[in-house]
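Help needed: design a sequence for this.
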């Protein structure tokens, strides 16, 4: 699949990572949280992540 130049990603363990470049191959991603009141980057998650 081709990279989506609108979605950067450095998680190479994800099935949707564009391998040669730090981009995602999905058309869109879903971002969520595991916190009730997120206030920091670390509180957010890419819910589109799928392990390779």
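Sure. Designed sequence:
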């Amino acid at each position: 699949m081709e990279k989506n130049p609108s979605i950067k990603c450095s998680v190479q363990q994800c099935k949707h990572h564009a391998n040669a470049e730090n981009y995602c191959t999905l058309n869109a991603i879903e971002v969520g949280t595991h916190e009730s009141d997120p206030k920091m980057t670390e509180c957010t998650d890419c819910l589109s992540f799928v392990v390779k």
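The longest strand covers residues 4-8.
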